[in-house]
Amino acid sequence: MTQDLVLSTTTGAVRTLTLNRPAALNSFTGAMHEQLLAALNAAADDAAVRAVIVTGAGRGFCAGQDLNDPDMSAPDGGGPDVGAVIERRYVPLALRIRSMPVPVIAAVNGVAAGAGANFALGCDMVVAARSAGFIQAFSKISLIPDCGGTWLLTRLVGRARAIGLAMTGDKLPAEEAQRIGLIWQCVDDTALMDSAMALATRLASMPSKALAETRRALDAAAMLDYEGALALEARLQRDLGRAHDYGEGVAAFLGKRAPLFTDR
Questions:
Q1: What DSSP state is assigned to residue 243?
Q2: Is 248 among the domain residues?
Q3: Distance of alpha carbon 83 from alpha carbon 191, whole angstroms
């Protein structure tokens, strides 16, 4: 019988996905990758879902790759092909998160290490429990940050902090992570899921398509010059301005009522 390595629950328009290997601090295996990607795809395909929360069962969010998983064993008995694992598992996961049609919130309930840390940072917003911590653990096993870490870290906290975090592999407490801009919010442990749900519910009531395009525009602008970013803004605004939600937003504003957004 297949173990449920990712639990899925729905509250209103919010889908919560819980990584469910608590005894192993929810470290990634090939099987968990497959279930998580399937759960994200299902949320993306469900028009009733307008925000997603990802969290971990037990005392950790995700400790990164499970080094004992068969994924890490070379078929010829030689050394593991870590690059193949990245290409087969982590690239699709990172790209799926960045292409979700709705906002994705990481509710980090404990340690987020290695690929687990960068998976969380790749989400749109990170809310972390005060006892949580982020560890770029790769240097401890002679690897580099993956799951998008090399792209994310410098953009979030600048080159000096990114190199310091990546080279030392030191644990960064959640409060400090918020202070330096690595994450959105640090909250008391007991308030974590309520805070994440409140944020997700708020985002679910907003124009999903515009929020997804905001993510895309900000990410793309990091690789464009100023003129290119202006051109992208015009193109996206043209498309959004022709959609239902823009008309609804304007009508609600003029009518002094709450808008009902439906585009996705």
A1: S
A2: yes
A3: 38
